[in-house]
## 1
Amino acid sequence: MSGKTKLPMGIENFERIRKERFYYVDKTGLIRDFLENPAYVNLFTRPRRFGKTLNMSMLKYFFETGSDSTIFNGLEISKEKELCREYMGKFPVISISLKNAASDSFSSAKEMLCSIIGQEALRFPFLSESDRLSETERRQYNAMIHVGSDGVFTMKDSLLKNSLLLLSCFLQKHYGQKTILLIDEYDVPLDYAYKSGYYDDMVGLVRTLFGAAFKTNDSLEFAVLTGCLRISKESIFTGLNNFKVYTVKDVRYKEYFGFTDVEVLQMLEYYGFSNQYDAVKEWYDGYLFGNLGIYCPWDVINYCGDLRDGSVTEPQNYWINTSSNSIIRKFIDMADAATKDEIERLIGGGSIRKKIRQELTYRDLDSGIDNLWSILFTTGYLTQDGQNDGIMTGLVIPNRELQWIFEEQIQDWFEAETRKDLQMLENFCRSFEKNDTDAIEKGFTLYLRKTISIRDTSVRKEMKENFYHGVLLGLFAGMKGWKVKSNAESGDGYSDISVEVADQEIGIVIELKYAENAAFDSACKEALKQIHDNHYEDALADDGMKTIYRYGIACYKKRCKVVSE
C-alpha cells in the first residue's frame, strides 16, 4: 500500500496533483466537449464538494500560455491531437475564485474583491512595462495592483468595476490573443451579502463588474463561471445573449462533476478497498446528474484516505464538517403540517414531486417553502429521482450521509419545539420516576404526533430505532438531577438509555424497539427480555440505585406502547 499514489485530500490545484503524482480521476474530456460546444459565457452550477474548483484549475492549465503541457500526458484530452495543437497553451487566462469574498459588511467585501482581482493582476507584472499598452493603460494596471502601507489594495470603486474588462484588454493587447476568463464560486459574495444585509449594494457591484467583463468586452474569447445557484439573469447577467447554463438536470457534462460508478470502483480496487464498495455506494452515491448516477467526490476521497491511514473502519459523515447545514434548519422552521408529512416521506426513503425553480434571486429564498425545496435541490441536500415531466421533478434524499443530516437536524428542531411547554415536559419525564406506563405512553405518543416520524419503508430497522432513541434523549436532556446515559456499557451489553435519579435512589433502564407491522406486544417483550438477559440494571445497582424500573418501549410511526417490570 505504501507504494500507491497519494490521495488529493483537499487539494484543488490541477498542476500540483499531476506533478506531485496524486491520484487523479480523469475529467479532461470536459475540455474536448466544451470546445465542441462553445458559448461566449458558460455557467456550471453544481453543489459544493463536487469538483468545480479542480475542473476550473484544469481549464486554466490547459489554455494558459506558458503552461507545462506535459501534465496532460496520458489523459483523455491528450488523444485529441488537433484540439491540443489549436488550443493548448495558446491564451492569456484570468482565473479568480470568489469563495473568499465573504464578509459581514459591504466595505469589507469590496476590499476582498479588490484583493482577489489585484492578486490575479499581479501574476502579469510585465504589463506595467509592456510597450503594447499605452501610458494611460499602464497607469491603470499599476493602480490595479497598488498596495498601500497597510498592505491593502487601494483600487478605487470605478477601477474595481472595470477591472476584469481592463485586465483582459491589457492581456489581449500584450499577447495579441483574446483572453479567457474563469470565475469560480461566483455566487458566494451574493450569498454572504444576502445574509449580512447589503444584498442590493453587492448585486449592483457584481452586475457592473460582470456586465463590463462579459457584455462590452471585445478582448474576451470566452468565460466560464461556476457556482451552486443559478442567479436570475435579470439580477446580474442582464443583456447577455450568448449565455449558457448547465445545471444538474442537464445531460451535457453530466459525468465531469463528481465520480461515476466505474470511477469509484477503479479507485477502490487500486487502493485495495473493493470490499468497501457497498458501503461507499450506500453512503456517498445516489445523486442524479442528467441521467447519470454520481458519487460525491469529496466524500469518496476522504473516506479512502482515512481507510489508508487506519483512522476509520466504516463510512463517516464528511459533509457535515464542511457546511453549517443552516438551510435545513431554515427549511424546517418554515415547514407546515403538509411539509412535515413530505419530510417524513423523504426520510422514510420515499420521493415527493415539486416544481423546481433553478433560476432564483436571493430575495426569493425566504418568500415561501416552495423556493426552499429548489434550494435544497440545487445545493445537493436532495436529488432528482428521474421522474421529471418537464414541470414537476421527483425529489429524494440521495444517500445515507444526507439521510443522517436530515434526521439530526430534525431532532434538534424537535427538541427546541418540545421545550416550549416546560411543565408538560416535566410531567412526562416524572412519569418514568413514578413507573406510570399509561402517562409515559400517552405523553410520548403526543410528542411523536407533533414531530417528524420515520415511515415504515425501506429504511433499516436500526435507523428507525435510532430515530426514536434520539427523540427520547432530547426530551430527557434538560431534567435537573437526572444522570442520563445513552448506549452505556452495563451488565453484558449496552443499554439504549439509562437514568439515575440520585436524590431518590431511582434507576431507570430503557430499551427501544421498532414494532414491525405494528406488532407492539412482541416488540415490548423483546425489549424487556434484552434488558433481563444482558443485566442492564447491574450498573444502576452498583451506583446505589435502590429502586430500578425497566421499560420496554415499542414504536411504530407515531404510536408507541410502554411496558414495565
## 2
Amino acid sequence: MRIAKCVSAAALVAAAGQVCAQPVIDGIRDDSFYGTTPLWVQNQPTGFGDNTATIPCDPNAVNNPGGVTTGVEVRIPISALGPGFNPATVKVMAFITSKFGDFHSNQFVPGLPATQFNLGEPRVIDLTTIAGGIGGNQFATGAMPPAGAITIDGTRDATYPAISAAQTARTGFGDANLGQVGLCNGSEADGLFVAADATDLFITVTGNLESNGNRLVIFIDSVAGDGQNQLVSTNPTTTAAGALARMSDDPNTVPVEGMKFDAGFSPDRVLFASLEDPGSGLTLYVDWAELPAAGGGNSWFVGTGTAGGGGVLLAGDPGAPAIACDVSNSNIAGVPGFCPPPTGNPDIANGSEIDGIYLKIANGRLFGLVTGNIQSNYNKISLFFDVAPGGQNRLRGDNPNVDFNGLNRMGDDGTGNGLTFDAGFEADYFVSLTTGLNGLTPTIFANSAVLRTDGKIVNGNGFALDYSSYDGGDKPAQAPEVDFNGPLLQPQTGFVANPECNYAPRLASAELQANPTAPSATGLGGKSVHWLNNSNLGGVSGVDVNDPMATGSVAGAPTVTTGWEFSIDLVELGVPGGNPNATIKVAGFLSNGGYDFLSNQVIGGIPNTPGRAYAVNVGEPRVVDFNALAGDQFVTLAPGPACYANCDGSTATPFLNVNDFICFLNKFGTGDPYANCDGSTTVPLLNVNDFVCFLNRFGVGCSAP
C-alpha cells in the first residue's frame, strides 16, 4: 500500500494501527482510498492507438524510400517565383505537419537523423541544431531540366532528373497501408525530386499524405537576397487556415520565436497541400504565399482538386498563380512507421486511451485518477472542472494563452463557435497533461488555467491579470511528481500579453491581481500535483476508424489501475469555501498535440457512429456540441453524507470516536449497505476492504457532523 500521510486513530490504534489519510500521487490506483469501482468506465475502443507491447525494431532500417514513385506533384509557373529566378540556385525543402501547422512530423526531405522523433512545436524549431540532410542541412539546391514532358498526376515521371534527397527517418506520422489513390491512413515524405524548364518549376515529394488534413509544406528559396531565415510575425494569417502564422513568430511573446531554417536557406515562397473530406468527398486543397524578408507578403488559396484529378485546381482566389497539383496515395512501401519505444513501463506508450475515472475528496483536496495511457507523442488529456455557479458552457477564445494557445484553439475564434459542453456543465478550471520524448528521455508537462464566465481578467491596458500556468520537463527530473511549485512567477509590468507561472493559476492569479508588479510566491506551492504511469497494456482495444466494418473491445476498461493521477486544492479549484461536500463535475477527452483534433475517448462516453460498431474520432473541437450526443459527456462526484465516518450521527465534539467504530462493526455484521464503504459491486460486497476504507475515512476526520 502506498501511504502519503498517516495519523493515529486513538482508540483504533490497537485494532488497526495507523489510518491512511490520502494516497501518494504516483499514477497507480490505491484501492484502499479510491476503491475498485470507477466512477465511469469507457464505452469506446480507442481511435488514437492501442498501447501494445513492442517488438524489436531497428530505427535505422528505412527500406527503400528512393524507389517510391507516387506522392504529391506540383507545377509552379516560374512567373510566380519572382524576378531573377535561377534554376541552378533554387533551394527547396519539404516536410509534413499537422492540419493547423502546430505539430511538425519527423518527415523532412532532405531528411533528419534516423532516430529523430517528431519535432512537435514549430515555433521553437531551429534546424541549425539538427544534423542529417545534405551536408547537415535540410534543403536541396538546383533544378535540372527534365529529359522530356512531365505530366502532373501524382506519379514521378521517368523524365525527372535524379532524386534530390531521400528520406532518412522512419515516419512518426503513421505508415500508410491502404494502397488507394485518395483515402490514406499515414503520412511520409520518401523522396524529393526537382526539375525546371523554361516556364515551370516541377516538384514531386513521393510518399503519402494522410487524408485527415495533414499538410505537405514546400518551402522554396527562389531569389537570392530575399526571404526569411526565421519566419516572422507579420506573415499572412489566412494561408492554409492559419498554418503559416502558427509556424511564425508570435508577436506577443519574448524572445522572438518562429521556425528557423539552416544557414543559407531563406525561403521566399511556400506551398501547402492537404487532403481531407469536408463532408462532400475527399478534396485536395492548395495554398501559396510569398515570404518577403520583412513579412507582409501576398497569399492565395490556389484552389481545390481531387486525388488523381490530373492536377486541375478550381475555385481559387482571383490572381492566384496557375499552380497545378495532384496526389496519389497508392504507395505502401517507402519508409516504415517509427520504431515504437519499449512499452509496458511507467514512462512510455505508443497509444492513447481513457479507460475510467476515480474521484474523491479528502483533506481539503480533490484526488483523481484517469486510468489509461497518453501516447509519447505529446497527445493531450484535457480535464474541465465545474465546481461553482458561472463558468463557460461554451469555451471562449479569450482565456489565458495556455500551452501555445491550445486552450483557445478549442474556443470561439470570433465567429461564435467554440466547444460546447452539455447543458448543466459550465467549466471553471482547466488542466491538461501530455508526455513525449526528449531524444530518448521521457517528458511530462501539465498546463492549467482558470476559466471565468467573462474571460480572463485584464488590466486597464487590456493585458492579462490571469496566469497561464505550466510545469514539467524531463520526467526523471520531475520525479516523484509535477507539483506546480515554481519558481516562475512573472510580474505584470503593464504590457505583458501573457504572464506565465509555474504555480497553480487561481491563487497565483489572485496574487498577480493584488500585486501585479511584484507578486509573491508565499503559500502558492503544491496546490496542484500530477503524475502519469503509462504502463497499462490492457484496457480498451484499438479500432481502425477508417474501416466501417471494424470492431473493438472495451471489456478490459474497468480493470485498468494506472494512468494520470492528480490532487488539486479545493480552494484552488474554485470550490466555494473549499467545501468538502461540494458537487464536482468533470469533463474531458484525448486530443492531438495541437488541441485541434479530438479523439473518440471522451469522459462520460459518446454513442456509436451510425452504421458502425464504434464511434469515430470527434475531430475539430470548435464545432463540437456535446448536447448533440446522447448521454452526458461529464461525470459527477456528488456529495456524500456530511461525514461518512460519523456512523452514529453524533453532534457533540469530537464527532468521531470509538463509538463510530463500534457502529460500523454492527452495520457490517448485519449486512447494512452503509458498510459497503468502498462502493464495490462484486460479491461479497462487504469484505476487509470496507474496513480499510472506513479507517481511511475516519483518519481524514470531520469538520461538521
## 3
Amino acid sequence: MIKNRSCPGRWCAIWTVMLNFALPLSVNPSFAQDVVGPIVGTVESTTANILYRPGITETKLRLSLRAQGELQQRVMATASAENDYVAKFSIKGLEPTTVYTYEIADASGRVLVPADQKYAFRTANPARQGGRVTVSFASCVDSEPNKIWNEMAALGTETVFLMGDTPYIDSSDLGVVRDRHRKFLQVPGLAALGAHTPVVGTWDDHDFGRNNGNGRNMMSGKGLTRQAFMEYRAHSQFGNGREGVYHKVDLGMIEVFLLDPRYFSQTGPSPVDPSQPTGFGNDQWQWLLQSLRESQAPFKVLACGAIWQDKKNQETDDLFTYWYERDALLDYIKSENIGGVVLLGGDIHVARHLRHPKRVGYDLHDFIISPGHTRVITSLDVYHPSLEWSLVEGWQFLTLTADGTAGEPRLIAEFRQPDSKVNQKVEISLEDMTPAVEDHHQDLRARWTFDDDFKNSSSLGDRNDAVPVNDPSIVAEGISGGAVRFHATKEQFLTVPRSFLDDNSAAHSVSLWFKAESLPEHGSTQRAFLLESTAEGRPSNVSAWNLSLGLRTAPNANDINLQLFTHTLQPALKPEMAPTAISQGPFDTWVARERLLEEWNHVVFTFDSKSLHLYLNGKQVAKHTLPVPGPASGFGGLVLGGHRAGTGRNFNGFIDEVTVWQRALGETEVNAMFTEFQHQE
C-alpha cells in the first residue's frame, strides 16, 4: 500500500486508492492503439474539462458526475471522426475545493469508464490567501516509460503542466501528429495520472511540428498541428479561438500563464517595435498584459517551452531572439507594480535556476526544467550572470508550491527526480516578490565608495562586491572619504564577478571620479582603462565591452583621448535569424592633458541604445550616435582600473565613488552630482 502524507483528509484516501489500483481500462494493451483517456484537463474552482477517446467509433457519450456519491449533473459529448473520435466534456457550475468522481457511458448505456474513485478530480480552492497548492512542470518527455508521472502522483500534485516537446512529433502530417499524441497519453504512468489529475500545457518546437519551428517556417502546417493539439488537450481556452494555444489556469494561490512563442512568431511586426518581427503576436500580447494586470493571484507563473535568455547556439527559438518583447513585458510588470511573478521555461535539456536582480522592482526568479527524459545537452549549460544553480541530468521535473497557510505567503520551488530526490529547493517569500512602489533607489544598481573596503553598497549587495587583484590599496585621500589607488606597473585592478544591469540593458549610466598620476605618452600606443565590462565575470579577452572607458593619445600633444567603446545587439538581418552582438566605436573625445593629470575629475557616460553621452565635470563634452542602434549585448562583470583582460592596459592613479544606474541620466542630474561632491571636497 502506497501512503501519501502530502494532502489532507478524504483526498489523501482517494490518491491512495488510485495509486494502488491497476492501470485504467483505457490503457489495456488489447486496445491501446484506439482508446485514450480519460484525461482530466483544465480544472479551476467551478469548472472542469475532460477528454476521452472510446476507440474508432462515432458515438454520443454521457459523463455522470458525483460528489459524495450523489449525482450532480450529466454532460454530453460526441466522439466523431472529424475530431479523431476524441470527445470533450466541458463541466460548469461546480463547487470549489470539492472532490468529484465521474462515469462515462456510450449511447447504448454501456459503461466505458466506471464510477470509481480512480476516476476523480478536485476543484481548485479559489482563496487568494491562507491556501496551499502544489503544481508540477515537465518538458522534453517522449512516449516511453517514465517514473516522473508516478512521482507526481505520490506528491499529490494538483495540476501537471506540460511545457512542450511533450511529446516529440516533428511532423505536420495530421495522421502522424494524432498518432504521436495518442501514444503519449497512453503511456501508463501518464494515463493513470491524467485520469484524476489535471494535465494541461503548451507546446515547444518538436510538438509544434519542427525543430526550431516558428510561425513562418511552419505556416503551411501549424493549422494541422494545432488541430491535433486541441483534440488531445482538454483546455478551457486555445489561444484566441482561431490561432495559437496560449491560455491560463487560475488555482487561487497561483495562476499559471501558458504562453505560445511559436504559432505567431516571425509572422508580422512586433506590437512593441514594428521594425522587428513578433514573437508572441498582437492578440497574445494584449491578452497577456490584460491578464497580468487583472490577476489577483499572489503568485503568477509566466511559462513557455522556450527559455527567456539566449541559448547561445544561434538558434532562434528562445525569447532572447525577441528581446524587445521580452523586455517590454518585464518593464510592464515593473511599471504596473505587479508582484509575485516568476518565469519558467524548458527546451534545453538542462535544469537551471536564475535570479535576475531587481529586474521587475524585485528579484525575478527564472526556472528552467528539462529534460523529463534521459537525453541531456551539456553544451547548453552556458554561463549567465544571473545563474544560481544548474543540473545536467535526466528524469527531471519541477514542483511549485504556493503556501499561504503559515505566516507570510511563500513560493517553494523544488527541482526533483524520481525516488523522492530533491536536487534543489528555492523558497521565496511574497514580501520579497512585492515591488517597493516608492523606492527611489530601484535604478541604482551598483555603488563602490571605497571609503573602507571594496564592497558594493547598492541594494544588489555582496553579489557585486569588487575583488582586488595584485593588491590595489584603499587610501584616505579620495574625493569623498577613501579611494582606491592603482599602480599600473604592478598591474593592479578590481574585478566585479557578476553583472549588475538587466539583460540586454536598453539604458544605463556610469559615474566615477578619477585622478590620473600618469597618462599615455604622446605618440605612443599606450592605453589605460578606467573600466571595461567582461564576458563571463572573470577577466578575459572575450568581446563583451558594453561598458568601456579608457585613455589613449590624441593627435594634439596637449590633449588626451577620453575614449568610449560599446558592444550592442544588432537586430536580425533577415527573417528567422538571431540577433548578433557587435562592437561599436571607438568614440573619441579630446580633453586637455593638464585638466586630467594630477586633478580629480568627474566623468559620466550614459547609454540609451541610440547614443552615448559623455560628461566631464558636470558638463556634456560629447554625444556619439551609434551607427547601429540596439541595446547592450550580454556581459558578466566588470574590471575597474584596467581593461577586460585585467592586465596590460592598467590605469595609474586614483578612482573613487563608482556608481551605476539602470537608466540614462540627464545633464541636470550629472551637474548636481558634480556640484555635490565639489562641496564635499
## 4
Amino acid sequence: MFEIKARDGLARIGILHTKHGKINTPALLPVINPHFMPIHPTEMLAMGIEAIITNSYIIYNDEELKKKALEKGLHSLLNFNKPIMTDSGSFQMYMYGIEIDAFEIINFQREIKADIGTILDIFSEYKEYEKVKEEVEETIKRAKKSMEYKGDMLLACTVQGGVYKDLRRYCAKELAKLRADVYPIGGVVPLMENQRYAEIAEIIISSKKELPPSKPIHLFGAGHPIIFPMAVALGCDLFDSASYIKYAKDDRLIFPDKTLKLDEIDELPCCCPVCSKYSIDELKEMDEEERIKNIAFHNLWQMVVEIKRIKQAIRFGNLWELVEQRATAHPSLQEAMEIISKEKRWLEKWENISKKKAFIYVNKYSMHRPIVYRLQKRIMERYEPFFDKSVVFAEIEKPYSKNEWMKELKANCIIESYFGPIPLELDEIYPVAQSLFPLNIEMRGRYDKFYKNFNIVDIREVERGSKDYDIRKIKSVANYQFGKGAGEALFKGKIKIVKSKVTGKIRNVYCDGKHIVSMRASDGFFTLKIEGGKRLHEHFSPPKLRVIVENDAIPFIKQGKNVFAKFVVNACGQLRPYDEVLIVDENDELIAVGQCIMNKKEMLDFERGIAVKTREVVK
C-alpha cells in the first residue's frame, strides 16, 4: 500500500509498505548481482539505502543459489533485512534470447519471499509498430495471469510499448485495471544508453496519464542521476541502477550532470567519502579490484545524494528549478523540456496552489511551469474589472500596490509583468509577489485576448479619489482562488478588514461581525473560516469546491478529524493540492472546511492517506 506524505505537483514523498518494512519514495534500488557484490547490501544500509533489487532469474538459474533462496529465503541469501524487489529476467530474455516460463518465475519470486515481484513482460524497443503491438498484448495477457500467482507478494506489472506513445497509453490503461501494487515503466535502458531523454519523457508522460495515481511508478533501468529530477517531476517514485558498478568497471565516475572517465579527471569535484579520502592520483594507482569498488561507492553516493536533493526540493516546492538546472547539462534534456512544456494543462491538475519558496527564474523553461500556466489562465478567466477604464503599466517594483497613488485611480490598473498582465489587486498572490527574475530577460508579450474587453486609456484621462481598493482586492483574490462570483458571495454585508500593525497588509476579513477568511502572509491567498464556507456553499452549486464524504465518516469529521481518501465519495474536479475546500456529506450538507492534500482523481483512487486536513467544523 502507498501513501503520500509531501508533494510538489506529480512529485511526491511517499511510503510504500512492504512485508520487510517501508520504502520512502523517491527511492533508489541498487541492483544486486548475487555473483558479484563489490558493495554488499549491508554496506548500502549505512548509505541510507532502504531497498534493493535483484534478478530472480539469475538466482533461479544457479542451483546452489536457488536451493539457498528456497530454503532460507531471499533476505537470508543476500543478508539484507529490508525490502527486496526482484526482476523476472525480461531483460536477459531480450538480450540473450533466454526462454523463461512466465508463471514459473512468478511462483519462484513468491516462494523465495520477495517483497515485490515483477511479471515477465516482453521488452520492446526499436521494432515495427505491429510487432510491438503484439508484444504489448502478450505483456498484458501475462500480467493478468500473473495476478493469480502473486499471493501476498506485491506485484509489479511493467508498462511496455516501445517508443510508440499510443501503445504505451494502451498498455498502461489495460494494466491499470488490474490494480497491481507497483507499475514499472520498462524498455528505456537502450534510450538511456543513447541519451535519448526526450523519448524517455514522452514514454513516462504517456504511461503516467493512464496509471492509477495511488500506485508507485518505477522507471526501470534509469540508472543515471541526470534523469532523476525530470522523472520524479513527471511522477516516477522508484529507480533501479546497476550503472554504479557497470561504470566503475569501465573507470567511469558518475556526477549529477555528467559522467567522466578517470583519466579525464585532474581534480575530484566531489566530497563523498571516497573522494574525501583519496586523491585522483591515488585512485588511478589502485589495483583494479580496489579501484572498481571505490568508484562504485562514489557512483552510488552520487545517486543517493541526488535523491536526497530531490526530496528536499519536493518539500520546499522548488523541484522544477532543479529540473531546469539539470536540463542545461545535455541537449537531449532540453529537448525533453520542450516535450514537457506542451503538457502544462495536464501537469497543472496536480500542481500545488502555492509553494514554500519563491518562484526563481532559471531559464526559458521556467515560464512553462504549470503554476505559471494556472496564473495566466485564472487571470484570463476569473478577473472581473471594476471600472470602465483601464491603465497599463510597465513592470514596476514589487509589491505593485506599495504605490499608494495607483490604488486611488478610478481605473483598472494592469501591470505588464514577467508573467504577463497582472491586475493590481492580485499583486500579492503566489507567484506574483514571491518571484525573482533577472533584469535583462525579455518581457512577456501583451495578451491581446486578455485586453480585448478592456478600454485602455492614457493615465491622464483617469480621475482619482477611489477609496475602495481593499474591497476590490479581497474580491479579486476570492474570484481567483475560488472561482468567479466568490468575491461577491463572501463579502456582502458590513465588511471589516483587519490589517497587520507591522506590515499594514490584510490579515482577516469579517462580514456582519463574523470571521469569513484570513489572508496568508506567505502566499496572499485566503484561509477559509467556517462562516466563509457557509457563504460559498450557499452560492456555488455542487460539486463546486466540495469534497463529498461517506456518511460513516461524518461523526469523526465533526470531532475535527481529517478526511481520509478511502472515505471520499466524490469531489470537485477543479480542486488542486492545498486548495481550500468545503467538506459535505452525501446530501450536500456542509460539515466542515479544510485544505485538500490531493486532487479529485487522487482522492477517489487512494486507499490510504489524508485527502483533506479539516480546519473548522459546523457547530
